[in-house]
Here is the input.
Amino acid sequence: MTDHPELTVGIPTVGREYLAETLQSVETAATAYDGTVSVVVASAERPRALDEVAFDAVQSAEWVETAGSTHENRQAILETSGTEWVLFTDDDCRVARDVFTAYAEGLAANEDEDLGALYGRVKFVGERSPVFDAGRALASVPFDAASHEQTVEWAPTANALLSRSAALSVGGFDTENPIPFSGGDVDIGLRLTEGGYTGHTCPNAVVEHTTATWDSLGTNTRRFFRYGQSEAWLANKYPGQRIPKIGADETTPGPFRMSLAYLGSCVSGGEDGTTNPTLLTTVLVILLAVVFTVTNSVGYHYQVLASVNLPNRLLFHRFRPEGRYL
Here is the structure.
């Protein structure tokens, strides 16, 4: 019989209105779980959604005040949580009704491991546009790693169940990370791995991520700029993880790689089976990918030049493909 451990759901928020849907999904999932579920939300200001959602199945819902950065929010959640296992998600996501049971089963299946984290699948839901398609296809964030990998070094904290004791033993989330929003999931995953912990996947644990926050040209342009910055920061922090930019294993230009993946998705019908783009749409997606690729490169080199601690040789290095965003 599967045990049902006490769980904390940690949600760092930047004040998105979608947070109410996130919290409601946690309440719904808690009604289907035989164990205890608590919620910790961290942000600079108390979100109204905490007062708008009626919690019954959730044992407690707590707000922690921070300076406001995502890295500080996640660290505050770790420190505040009263349970060993903390499920991190984001304020533009909804957890599936059976997500807690799925993670309980995943913990039971890996109880003999030096388990530091379990990572579930992140599934995008909502309307798709060329801006979303270009951003999603180009970003090498392993949202769906749990579908095809048993162990990983890291995966997005949009759906990550972390061992509180393990995460704190390696220093927790790096609150000195200078890049807003980016790099923290890679960093904590690599430090858990270096600390001797294992990151297993849990494919039945699903979180739905709205496409709306990936559907703006301005937002995605800033996102890829930050991804470039965080790649430079990570390459400096983990020198053993970087490879030459010239002559590296992966030399195919990003937009071309993305276009092949996108066109393949079109032929197969895409993730949801509904993709049926016109030639114009396909060309637009590829052009947007070029914009995001350039923005990513600018962000990378900006961070190299702006940080006195980064050696100039990093201009000719990059974070390894398996751990990089782009």
Observations:
- The CA atoms of residues 140 and 325 lie 5 Å apart.
- The chain has two domains: 7-214, 217-323.
- The domain at 7-214 is CATH 3.90.550.10 (Spore Coat Polysaccharide Biosynthesis Protein SpsA; Chain A).
- The radius of gyration is 19 Å.
